[in-house]
Amino acid sequence: MKRIILDVDTGIDDSMAIAYAAHSPELELLGITTCFGNITAEEATRNSLTVLEKLGKQVPVIQGAKETLCRGERDHYARTVHGEDGLGNTVQHAPRGQAKEGHASDFIIEQVKRRPHEITIISVGTLTNLALAIQKDPGIVSLIHEVIVMGGAVTVPGNVTPYGEANIVADPEAAAFVFAAGLPLTLVGLDVTMQTLLPKSHLEAWRASGKAEGMFFADIAEFYMGAYESFYPGIGGCALHDPLAVGVAIDRSLVEAQPMRVTVVTEGEQTGRTVGSFEGEPKINVCLKVDADRFLAHFMSRIVGV
Ligand code: BDR
Ligand code: CA
């Protein structure tokens, strides 16, 4: 079993990633760390607790970065894509659970040191918490088993700018720092996640499951699909960005990757662009191909625990 920390900015596809991880026996979910991104860090914490409540799972949630590494607080969020509340406007009350005390970056440090070479960090939001953890304690770099990052667009256009993917654009310095840290890191970017579409027709299976969580995921996915339809007319579904990073943690053979050095543009109109090169060090594994059908079938078999 892989021991994981899931770092999120919950978010609709983050919610699906939480469910996928929580329902997968190959993974032991040690904690969910939250950061700003799709919404504020406080909202990401609330939403993560809300999703866990829907799932009936108890996992520690630890709040992290409220602002970027070097640029202060973000002045905008992705509410048009994920809803005013980040969960497709479905939040009706505060969750019963509470976040654990402390900062996400300290939780990462503590877990990695407690279990050297065992922890996989799956980051599906900004890379701020991980960057902060490494800045506080650089010794953890050699003790982390693996990092899997949903972020970037190395061979394809961006999604929030012509060049940049949302998680990298939201904190480019954090991403640049993490990619240069010498970690065993796999990048699951738009290069592959835009190929893993959840078709609208699949939501029927969730509604038909008769489970409250099935209805919840169908409702929030439908909102997300509405946003996708407005950005990509005729797409007929939504991209499973964050769930694919979890899928890669479960079964590496879902993707094919190439080792590349990836730098991040931090100035000018291309800010947030991830630039890959076969020259130079350190290299990270950039996913370039995905078995989308096999991934979708696996994801569907796990998401609402059916
Ligand atoms: C990424 O950006 C966020 O909006 C999603 O949750 C995902 O992590 C996709 O670019
Ligand atoms: Ca996310």
Automatic annotation (TrEMBL):
Keyword Transferase: no
Domain Inosine/uridine-preferring nucleoside hydrolase: 4-296
GO molecular function terms listed in the Swiss-Prot or TrEMBL record: hydrolase activity
Presence of keyword Hydrolase: yes
Pfam families named in the record: IU_nuc_hydro
Keywords: Glycosidase, Hydrolase
InterPro entries: Inosine/uridine_hydrolase_dom, IUNH, Ribo_hydro-like
PANTHER family assigned: INOSINE-URIDINE PREFERRING NUCLEOSIDE HYDROLASE, URIDINE NUCLEOSIDASE
Protein name: Nucleoside hydrolase
